[in-house]
Design goal:
Layout (H helix, E strand, L loop, with lengths): L4 E8 L7 H17 L4 E3 L17 H17 L6 E10 L2 E10 L2 E7 L24 E5 L2 E5 L3 E5 L5 E6 L9 H7 L4 E6 L7 H16 L2 E6 L14 E6 L2 E5 L8 E8 H9 L2 H9 L11 E5 L27 H23 L4 E4 L4 H16 L7 E5 L7 H14 L2 E4 L3 H11 L8 H22 L2 E4 L3 H6 L12 E2 L6 H14 L3 H11 L20 H4 L3 H13 L4 H12 L19 H17 L1 H4 L28 H8 L2
Parallel strand pairs: 1-2, 2-3, 8-15, 9-10, 10-11, 16-17, 16-19, 17-18, 19-20
Antiparallel strand pairs: 1-14, 3-4, 4-5, 6-7, 8-9, 11-12, 12-13
Helix pairs in contact: 1-2, 7-8, 8-13, 9-14, 10-11, 13-14, 16-17, 16-18, 17-18, 18-20
C-alpha cells in the first residue's frame, strides 16, 4: 500500500459444478494474473472451489474431501505469492457443515469465516445443507493441513501495512444487521463479500443500491464477487457481478452475463476512508455503543495478522481522478447548481428577515464573484417579494478598472432592475496616499490594499446610511489563498459566496444565465464569464485591457481548488495531493474540460509542484484572515468557516507540509 491506496480485485472464474480441480485451476489463473498486476487482496465468489449450485452433493463426503484437497493445492500454489486470496468452500466443523470464506496468504490459512445468514426462501434452500455461524461455538478444526480456529465472533484480518478487512458472505449483507456493520465498527477498512446471487428482473439495480448504501453507511471499501457462467441453470441464472465500492461510490464493475472469466481491479483509498471516519462523530459514537447488542450482550473481536509482503512494487495509480472535484457531473449540473443557488439565497433571505433590512448593498465590479453575489441578492428579494430597487449596486471605478468590466457592471445592474450608484475611489485614494506619504507610482501592496479598503468603507457607510447590510462577494478559493485585503473585501455583513470555490462560480453564473434572467442580462453574464479574473488594482495596459491577472500571480484556480479539496476534505499530505494532481491533469485518460478559455491546455509536473508549494505556504500564512470571517452559508462538504468547519490557529507552523512539498 502506498499513499493509502489498497489495490483490490473481484474475480469471477469459470466454474464447473462439482469439479473442484477445474475450479481451483481457474482460481489459480486469476490469482496469478492479479499478483502480476500488483493486486494486494483478491476475492472470489461464494463456494467458488466447488461451485455454489451443488445442492445435495454437499452431503457427499467425496465432494467435501475433494474440496479440502483442492484448497491444499491452492495453498501450495500461493506459497511464494504476496497476494491475499479469499475463496469460498464448504468446511466441516464437528457435526456442522459451514459455508465459508477462506483467507489465504503465503501458503497459509489466515482464517476461515463462516456465513451467518442462510437464505431459506423462494429459490434458496441453504439450511438444507449448511449451518449458520450462529450455531457455532468456538472450536479448532484441522483443515487442509492447518489448525484453524472457528468462531461465530467478528474476525478482523490485518495486513502488514495495517489495513484491516473483514469477510461476509452473500445473504449476510441483505440482513437487517449485516456482519459488516460490526466489522466496520471494529475497525475494518475493507469488506469482502463472496456471493452467489441469481438474476431477476430489477434485482441488479437493487443489489447495486444495497451495496452502495452499505459501503457508505460503514464508510468502507466494499468488494463484491458473485458467481457467473458455469453455475447450474436448472432453475435460475447466475449472471456474474464484480463490484467495488468506496464509501458508496462505485469504483469498478465487471460485465454481467459474460461467458468468460473476469476480474475487476480498483484502488481503494483507505486513507480517505479513515479520514471520513475520524471526522464523523456519529460513526465514533456508534463504535462506542455497538458493544451493547439488542439482547444486552457483547460481541468479541478476533484479530488475525497477515504476513509482510516480500516484494516491494512501484506504486502506479490506476484509477482516474477528477480534475474538478467541486464541479457536479454534467448529468447533475443543473440540479446541483439549482440546489447550491437556493442554499445561498435562502441563507441571505433568512438574514434579511432577521435584521428587518430593507436594503442590501453590493459592490459590483463586473467580475464573477460580485456578479454571483448580485444574482443571489436579486433572487432572495424575489423570494421575499421585495422590490429589487432595495438592492443598491455600487460600482467604484479605480486606477485599474477597465471599460469591459465597468460596462458589464452597469449593464447587468440596469437589466436586473436594481438601484445603481457610481462612486469613483480615485480622488479619495489619492488623498489617502498624500495623507500617509505613499508614492502613487509605486504599485505595491499598500497601493492595492488602499483601494480595496476604500471600497469597503464606502459600502459599509452606505449600508449604515440606508439601514441595510453589506453583502460579501469573496469566494472559498480566495479565502483559502488569502487573496483578499484584510478588512477590505475580506469584510462584509454576510458573505454569500464564502463556501463557493472559484471553479464552481462560473457554472453557477452560467446556470442562472441560461435559466433565470432576461436576454440582455444573459448576454452580459456570458461576457463576464469570459473575462479574465482580476482585482483590477493595477492600471490597465496601454490598450486598456486587464494587466493584473490573478492566476498569473497566485496560480490557476483549477489547480488550487483541486489542492484545496483534497487538503481540507480528507487531510491528505502534499505528496499524495501531488500524485493525485499528476494523475488528474497529466496522466489521465479522461477528456479535460477547461473551466475557462483562459486556462492552459495542459500542465507539466514542475507547474503543479510550483503552485502546490504556493498553496501550502499561503494557506498557512493567511489563516489570520479566515479566523475572523463574516457569517455565510455552507453549501458543500468543504468550508473554511472558523465557527464550524475549519478551526486552525493563525500562528500554526507550516514547516512539515512545506518541507514535504519542497522535496517532491
Amino acid at each position: 500500500m502506498k499513499y493509502g491506496f489498497m489495490k483490490v480485485a473481484s474475480a469471477i472464474p469459470a466454474v464447473k459444478v462439482g469439479d473442484v480441480i477445474f475450479n481451483t485451476q481457474q482460481i489459480e489463473d486469476l490469482i496469478a494474473q492479479a499478483e502480476g498486476k500488483g493486486v494486494e487482496i483478491i476475492t472470489f465468489p461464494e463456494l467458488s472451489i466447488t461451485g455454489y449450485s451443488c445442492q445435495d452433493l454437499f452431503r457427499q463426503q467425496m465432494l467435501l474431501e475433494s474440496s479440502e484437497q483442492a484448497v491444499m493445492m491452492l495453498l501450495d500454489f500461493t506459497r511464494k505469492l504476496d497476494i491475499i486470496s479469499i475463496v469460498g468452500a464448504p468446511v466441516v466443523a464437528g457435526d456442522l457443515l459451514l459455508n465459508c470464506g477462506i483467507v489465504i496468504q503465503h501458503g497459509q490459512i489466515l482464517g476461515i469465516v463462516p456465513k451467518t445468514y442462510l437464505p431459506n426462501y423462494s429459490e434458496f434452500y441453504e439450511k438444507r445443507w449448511f449451518a449458520s455461524a450462529q450455531d457455532l461455538r468456538d472450536c479448532e478444526v484441522r483443515y487442509a493441513g492447518h489448525k484453524v480456529k472457528l468462531t461465530p465472533d467478528v474476525q478482523i484480518f490485518r495486513t502488514y501495512d495495517g489495513v484491516q478487512f473483514g469477510v461476509e458472505i452473500c445473504e449476510d449483507v441483505w440482513a437487517p444487521a449485516p456482519p459488516s456493520n460490526k466489522l466496520a465498527l471494529a475497525g475494518a477498512d475493507l469488506i469482502f463479500n463472496l456471493s452467489a446471487s441469481d438474476e431477476l428482473i430489477g434485482k441488479h439495480n437493487y443489489l447495486k443500491s444495497l451495496l452502495s448504501q452499505q459501503s457508505a453507511r460503514t464508510m468502507t471499501g466494499y468488494i463484491y464477487s458473485s458467481c457467473g457462467f458455469g453455475e447450474s441453470t436448472q432453475d435460475v441464472v447466475y449472471g456474474g457481478n464484480a463490484l467495488v465500492y468506496e464509501n458508496g461510490a462505485l469504483l469498478a464493475q465487471g460485465e454481467r452475463f459474460s461467458l468468460d472469466p473476469q476480474m475487476v481491479i480498483a484502488q481503494v483509498d483507505v486513507e480517505k476512508l479513515r479520514s471520513e471516519r475520524r471526522t464523523n462523530s456519529t460513526y465514533v459514537n456508534a463504535q462506542r455503543n455497538i458493544k451493547y447488542s439488542v439482547l444486552g450482550g457483547q460481541f468479541n473481536i478476533r484479530n488475525i495478522d497477515a504476513d509482510p509482503t516480500e516484494n516491494e512494487r512501484e506504486f502506479v495509480l490506476e484509477r482516474e481522478v477528477n480534475p474538478h472535484p467541486f464541479i457536479p457531473t454534467s448529468s447533475d449540473m443543473d440540479a446541483s447548481c439549482e440546489e447550491i443557488f437556493n442554499i445561498q439565497l435562502m441563507g441571505l433571505a433568512k438574514r434579511i428577515v432577521h435584521t428587518h433590512a430593507k436594503t442590501v448593498v453590493v459592490g459590483i465590479s463586473g467580475g464573477l464573484d460580485s456578479t454571483l453575489a448580485l444574482l443571489v441578492c436579486v433572487k432572495a428579494f424575489d423570494k421575499l417579494k421585495m422590490d429589487r430597487r432595495g438592492i443598491l449596486g455600487v460600482t467604484m471605478p479605480g486606477f485599474g478598472t477597465t471599460d469591459r468590466t465597468y460596462n458589464n457592471a452597469i449593464s447587468l445592474m440596469k437589466s436586473l432592475g436594481i438601484t445603481i450608484r457610481e462612486i469613483s475611489i480615485a480622488k479619495a485614494v489619492t488623498q489617502h496616499f498624500e495623507d500617509i506619504g505613499h508614492d502613487a507610482s509605486v504599485h505595491d501592496v499598500t497601493y492595492e490594499n488602499s483601494q480595496a479598503r476604500e471600497r469597503t468603507q464606502i459600502l459599509m457607510d452606505l449600508a449604515n446610511k440606508m439601514g441595510g447590510m453589506v453583502i460579501g462577494t469573496g469566494d472559498l478559493s480566495e479565502l483559502a489563498l488569502g487573496w483578499a485585503t484584510y478588512n477590505g473585501d475580506h469584510m462584509s455583513m454576510y458573505g454569500v459566496n464564502a463556501s463557493i470555490p472559484k471553479t464552481l462560480i462560473r457554472h453557477l453564473v452560467n446556470y442562472v444565465a441560461e435559466s433565470g434572467v432576461d436576454e440582455q442580462s444573459r448576454i452580459t453574464l456570458r461576457d463576464i464569464i469570459d473575462t479574465p479574473i482580476s482585482p483590477e488594482l493595477i492600471p490597465a495596459d496601454e490598450n486598456g485591457n486587464i494587466k493584473q491577472k490573478t492566476e498569473d500571480l497566485v496560480g490557476p484556480y483549477e489547480l488550487h481548488d483541486f489542492f484545496l479539496y483534497y487538503f481540507l476534505r480528507f487531510g491528505f499530505r502534499p505528496s499524495k495531493i501531488y500524485m493525485l494532481a499528476k494523475k488528474a491533469f497529466i496522466d489521465t485518460k479522461l477528456e479535460r474540460v477547461k473551466i475557462s478559455d483562459n486556462d492552459p491546455d495542459s500542465y507539466d509536473e514542475e507547474t503543479i509542484k510550483k503552485w502546490l508549494k504556493t498553496f501550502v505556504r499561503r494557506f498557512f500564512n493567511q489563516q489570520f484572515k479566515r479566523s475572523c470571517l463574516p457569517d455565510g452559508p455552507k453549501v458543500g462538504s468543504v468550508s473554511l468557516s472558523p465557527r464550524g468547519d475549519w478551526r486552525m490557529p493563525s500562528d500554526a507552523a507550516s514547516t512539515i507540509w512545506l518541507q514535504e512539498a519542497e522535496n517532491l
